[in-house]
## 1
Amino acid sequence: GMFMVYYAERRDRDMFLQSRLLQIAKWRTERYAHDLDLLSRQDALTALANRRHFDETLEQEWRRAGRHKSSLAILMIDVDNFKHYNDKLGHPEGDRCLRRVANLLAGHARRPGELVARYGGEEFVMIFPDTDHQQAVNLAEHVLDSVRRALIPQPDGLERWYVTISIGVSSTVPSERMTPSRLLVAADQALYEVKNNGRNSWWYLSPELQAAQAAPAKPASWV
């Protein structure tokens, strides 16, 4: 009888330990999968979302905005004269500059659905749900000011003493005739316009009107 009791207790203990080991192994596997998924969506240099994460979030927020008939805004951002910065100070300093700008941009994405991503090179992009035309350009002003106030030194050889950015702004209420790529193209074209008009500013362009009713860029008077 004692042997049977001992055998039953040992069997139960072994089964419990095996169950716990299986649970731990499952938790570790899920944790590793989560970490790998996170790394696959994160830019290695800036720790912001990468292009893949941005594309997925844009599609998701586009569908949500379409269901709620709300406006979705995009800010396309370029670090002004970044090639000059890299050529003068070298790539390690250029990387540090991009990380500083990335941290400043990240501080403007606070609400659910808002996202800051590195789009490529010295370009960044921001998504703002429930944000109309006026709110989008106000955000662009705040983003510009935050980089200006950071006073990141610009190497000699330019008229400006500090690093600045240019921003292309676009917003729309999704519809059947509209696509998220058209919103992105409008923001990119707006960025192109402001870069051709002095940089260190913003330009608004709706996807519906394209270049026809682009808002004039504000004068880049700050250096």
## 2
Amino acid sequence: MTHVVRPATPADVAGMHEMIIELAVYEDGLDEVVASEEDLHRALFGGTAISDTPANTPSGTPGLYAFVIDAAEGGLAGMAIWMLNYSTWEGQYGVYLEDLFVRQQYRGQGYGRALMEQLARTCVQHNYTRFQWWVLDWNRPAIEVYRRLGAVPMDEWTVYRLTGDALRELGS
């Protein structure tokens, strides 16, 4: 079965926001989601001809991108939200996948693979040298999919994060 992956449009934002909530439920992190549909719209489309508000980026243009797959019966079956990163060692951009989500009823039917293939094609088409993402250690189904695609874990790296008071203190 061929799945058509397309760039997200403003009309997809509500469905994408629903999937962000579904992902948060799956990852037992619903209480951490504070992003609104408006936040998502602004991140994806702010500062463009189709938006009245600027993006919240230094350039005022979007720094976030998304691909979606439509469900045959309407609505969205899945999405990939991504952004560019940059390797100073390679001197090239890459893709960082923030969220890959396929709704439960569509899993195991190639939707996730189709989204990953589109992201890999984006890298190849633009000569991006890396395609990276994080996955929770307990998410065995996702890990198995990623390994079948040829992805390898970056075990020698530890992720660090500043948020909340620590971020505000450092940035003040």
## 3
Amino acid sequence: SSNPTRAQLESMLAALEGTKYAVTYASGMSAVDAVMKMFRPGDHIISSDDVYGGVSRLFNRILSHYGMEFTYVDSSNPNNVAEAIRPNTKLIWLETPTNPLLKVTDLEAIAKIAKEHKIICGVDSTFATPALLRPAEFGIDIVMHSTTKYISGHNQIIGGAVLTSDEEIHKQLRFVQKAIGA
């Protein structure tokens, strides 16, 4: 369930992102799926309306069958996110810049909204990479990268990573990594 090469990669990615922990996966989509496995039937997730197609397919065509609820909003306006919050909202899932329209979200504003409501906030920061954006510095709980794209030079490898400084989130993600072989 572990090896020195992967441990070194995770250590380096966490250092680049400015987080305590990184957990790597077999693909970017398996990284997103691992995050979603932290939630249960009846949980509500707010998502950016312009996300990678694989993410919307996962949400709409797979996870919705397990009782998870999704609301899509233009997250470039923080009021849209705040207005979409329900009592059962457990996660705000952002992508910035988005794929393919390159919408930009004010991460500091969204992190503040999430913290006020005790909601986890995650960001797919694949397009920006840690060279241009480090979402954890804005109060974001979870940062995800498809390492298949820019971190690796685009399609040199297939992989994904989820980064956090929250020990409990890290433990959950590590368990999923081991349990499902992702």
## 4
Amino acid sequence: MRLLWQIYTSFFRIGLFTIGGGYAMLPMFQKEIIDKRGWIAQDRLLDIYAASQSLPGAIAFNASTFIGTIVAGVPGAIAASLGIATPSITIIMLIAEFVSKVMDIPVVEYALRGMSAAVVALIIHAAMRIGIRSTRTPIALALALISLVLVAFVRVNSVRIIVTAILCGVAYAWWTYKRDKLA
């Protein structure tokens, strides 16, 4: 029961102290789940990010569910999911009826603009850390660059890019397996 409480409170903190959605939470995942708790390895977290983004739903919620499952099975998944969702649900419920009144206050508007700028920095930081760790091989770097060009300039649907990257990764793994087996 103590482990489930630790899972819940860890993900509650992540959900409470990160503003800007799933990608802004990635540095907090790193700090809380790997650095502080040691529940999973860095490479495993990168795999969880990739899988979480590939599934429907919020990346933070999906990643929390994966990590909770790894740490403590289904009860851990429930504890992590509740932990990550509780702050957002609570805050939304508290401010929902006051939003129209608060948004007209200039100080609030400027505060939100400031938070938005900080969130962009957090997302860029997370992307750089993931990018450096995920592109250690020439094939991974090539896939990343091609994907970037396709999504940013050619405007290819991101689902197609993800599916194609998965197929390329499987094909590369199969090819290296066959190559090493024959050697």
